[in-house]
Design goal:
The protein has one domain: Glycosidases (TIM Barrel, Alpha-Beta Barrel). Helix content is about 50%, strand content about 10%. The protein has helices at about 10-15, 25-50, 80, 95-100, 115-130, 140-145, 155-170, 185-195, 200-215, 230-235, 260-285, 285-290; strands spanning about 75, 135-140, 175-180, 220-225, 295-299. It has a 5-stranded parallel sheet. Helix 5 packs parallel to helix 7, helix 9 packs parallel to helix 11 (about 260-285) and helix 10 (about 230-235) packs antiparallel against helix 11. The model is unreliable at about 1-55 (pLDDT under 50). Its EC number is 3.2.1.21.
Length: about 300
């Protein structure tokens, strides 16, 4: 059994970068329990690191009580970490547009630069190696690969970036876990047909997954189609505090939307998009790569 644990210090920092601090009641309701859990986990990790001096999995099997295939990892998402929001051919995504509209983010911050992981990933990976982690879950920016969805060209600069990123991880003995969607979607698809409210998005997501499997699947063994799709649905289409900011008047402060029906439509299309991605991998790539690959939908 392989487990990936996200270090709380990174997750808590990026929570702010993404503009989740939309209101004080929201923070108290959503994060009070998480702070407690992460605090306890941080204490445990601190004790573990002090007593074991950053356990290395290649040491003697008697140096740790963890099995040899146990994965300690960190995690990130493209919008919260990468920055470089218009660099090297990347298109706008829904969070780029949402965070730039006055009033959407309480303190006016955005992910234009974030922690600049796009330019500083080598330093970040050196830190991961020093910490002794052996896995890293990150998401690919859909708009960096396909700025206009399937109707446009593949942005080869984006492909090159993620190829370098994956190769560097593997060189350092860090297993890449790749999420295809962590809240973001090309703004072109939102403007064109309403993104998750249209069945057209299923074909776009299938094509996007196909491109990623084609260019990265020979080295990536673990795939996540969607990170927390429940959050995308509830906060994007029921309360409207996330893009595309759709909700009924009684549920939030939105200009349009239907909180009673749209969340179910969006969830329906996300589930079928997940199934489409799994299908294209099984039919086109499972035999080609001849490796055990896990494709998950993380909730």
């Amino acid at each position: 059994l392989s487990l990936s644990l996200s270090l709380s210090i990174i997750d808590l920092f990026t929570y702010k970068v993404a503009g989740h601090s939309l209101s004080l009641p929201f923070i108290i309701m959503e994060l009070s329990l998480l702070f407690h859990v992460f605090f306890v986990f941080e204490l445990y990790l601190s004790t573990l690191m002090v007593s074991c001096n950053f356990i290395a999995l290649n040491e003697s099997p008697h140096s740790s009580s963890f099995p040899s295939n146990f994965l300690f990892g960190t995690a990130s998402s493209s919008y919260q970490f990468e920055g470089a929001f218009l660099s090297d051919g990347k298109g706008l995504n829904n969070w780029d547009v949402f965070s730039h509209k006055p009033g959407n983010i309480m303190d006016g911050t955005n992910g234009d630069i974030a922690v600049d992981h796009y330019h500083l990933y080598l330093e970040d990976f050196d830190l991961m190696e020093y910490m002794g982690v052996n896995s890293f879950r990150f998401s690919i920016s859909w708009a960096r690969i396909l700025p206009k969805g399937r109707i446009g060209n593949v942005n080869m600069a984006g492909i090159k970036h993620y190829n370098k990123l994956i190769d560097t991880l593997l060189h350092k003995g860090i297993e890449p876990f790749v999420s295809l969607s962590h809240y973001d979607i090309p703004q072109e698809l939102e403007d064109g047909y309403g993104s998750w409210l249209s069945p057209k998005v299923q074909d776009d997501f299938r094509y996007y997954a196909d491109v990623c499997f084609k260019y990265f699947g020979d080295r990536v063994k673990y795939w996540v189609t969607f990170n927390e799709p429940n959050v995308v649905v509830i906060r994007g289409y029921r309360t409207g505090i996330y893009p595309p900011s759709r909700c009924s008047g009684s549920f939030g402060n939105c200009s349009y939307g239907d909180s009673e029906t749209e969340p179910f439509i969006a969830a329906h299309n996300i589930i079928l998009s997940h199934a489409a991605a799994v299908d294209v991998y099984r039919t086109e790539y499972q035999v080609l790569f001849q490796q055990l690959t896990k494709i998950l939908c993380y909730i």
